[in-house]
Amino acid sequence: MKILILNGSPRPKGNTKQMIDAFCEGLRSAGHEFEVLDLCRLNIRGCLACEYCHARGHGQCVQKDDMQRVYPLLEGADMLVLASPIYYHGLTGQMKCCIDRFYAMLYPKKPMKLSRIAMLLVSGDPDMYDGALFSYRGDFLDYLGLKDMGVITVQAYDPGVPAEKLEEIRRFGESVR
Fold it and tell me: pTM (2 decimals)?
């Protein structure tokens, strides 16, 4: 299975990265192919709502930035994993810009291959996940009809994902089918 993991954290050694590394360890042991994109290291601008992609662009965005790296990976993926710290009750701005730009290729329908999604979230507060989960359910499960492979949330402060949570995430990666 080909899996695209989008890292929405600006911290290269933070909790989100620790979670991704554990998940990838599990994926690797299960024999999956995966790619991790650090969105905060890419130049991805927000959607312009210009409708070029659906009027004249035939699914291609008018903006030519680092989303050009994301689109082919998304098109070839069987599964998408969104990994993000929680900022103001939701995903990071970098992650949100990327998701908004999915519109060019995912509307009115998703790529045939993409069928599954999972989410890894971390916050210092255990009750801050509602905004991110609303997007996950509405945008990906309901609208795109992707299969929910699971959401793992971690309450932690940098650096500090508990070892038992990292093991749970590693086993989650191993269990992906």
Answer: 0.95
Residue 132 CB contacts under 8 Å (≥ 6 apart), including other chains: 84, 86, 89, 90, 91, 119, 121
Q: Which residues contact 37 (CB under 8 A, 6 or more apart)?
A: 4, 5, 6, 7, 69, 70, 73
* Residue 27, both tokens: 């994926």
Q: Are 62 and 53 in contact (CB under 8 A)?
A: yes
User: Of 84, 88, 39, 89, which is closest to residue 66 (Cα–Cα)?
Assistant: 39
C-alpha separations of 3 from 51, 107, 164 in Å = 28, 21, 24
Whether 118 has a pLDDT exceeding 80, the answer reads yes
**Minimal CA–CA distance to 81: which of 37, 45, 124?**
37
Q: Which residues contact 50 (CB under 8 A, 6 or more apart)?
A: 62
What confidence tens digit (pLDDT) does each residue in 58-67 have? Answer: 889 999 999 9
Average per-residue pLDDT for the chain = 94
Residue 51 structure tokens: 């409708």
Give the pLDDT mean for 23-42. 98
Beta-carbon contacts of 141 under 8 Å, excluding residues fewer than 6 positions away, are 117, 148
Residue 111 has pLDDT above 80, yes or no: no
